[in-house]
Amino acid sequence: MSNVAGRSAHDRVAVGRSGRRRRGPRPLGSGVVARQIQSVERAAALLRLLGGAGRPLALAELAAAVDLPRPTVHGILRTLRDEGLVAQDQASGRYLLGEGLDRLGTPWDRHDLRSRAMNWADALAAGTGCAVYLGVPSVDGRGVDVVHHVFRPDGSPQTLRTNTVQPLHATAWGLCLLAFAPASVRVPEPLDRYTRRTLTDPAALTRELTASRRRGWAADPGGWEPGTGGLAVAVRSGGGLTVAALGIGAPAEQLFSSDGRPRPDPLVQLTGAAAEIADGLEGLR
Known about the structure:
Layout: H1 3-6, H2 9-13, H3 30-53, H4 59-66, H5 70-82, E1 86-88, E2 95-97, H6 110-128, E3 131-137, E4 143-150, E5 165-167, H7 172-179, H8 202-215, E6 218-225, E7 228-236, E8 242-251, H9 252-255, H10 264-281
Antiparallel strand pairs: 1-2, 3-4, 3-8, 4-5, 6-7, 7-8
């Protein structure tokens, strides 16, 4: 009996027709990851070509330069164009670098964000009876900068919070920014305590951020001001990046039921307003 026939079933799977042993199967999903990496490499090659050409290039030129089929190159260019990284001359159909490249790494203009959010923030305050906050990361990255604040419509004495910096770990809008920030962003330390509900344990904060990402919103049961709760959702750009956090604040019992869960209606209105603001950002940059 040959050595091949005498091997176990597991071994026979790993032996080719020539009798030579092949590598075992790749881990599940590795092929998908490899294809994604390959797509990024191809996109980068096309961007380098467009950047170094000094003139718009035709699809045929680009496909020949990277030695890929035209449909493949066209699909990559279409995606890059949708993201603003590549532009297409309407007259000739040729491709050139898009304006979106100039804005990579540049924060969104806070005045633009505020102006796009104002009407929706006012309507959200009227609909929920809550104060509304629009927050972005502070310049030093250690807090959340409130760029817009709408008072609760109940006529109670309130302090304007616009242009104030609040802690990331103790407010719903700060927790939201942390939860949906790039992986490279680190939580500022120390985690100062402001109330008995403030998250000061790094492990507990990590669990809360994970939960926020999973459910799509962040909650503060009173970690910044005693008895005052908050809910926040991310405002995303067309590319899916979080550019701000939209939040509502009110007495905790107005936002949360006795079991600690957020009341459905304010959360639904908040999510809808954030989506409308995000839609308004399309084409802004």
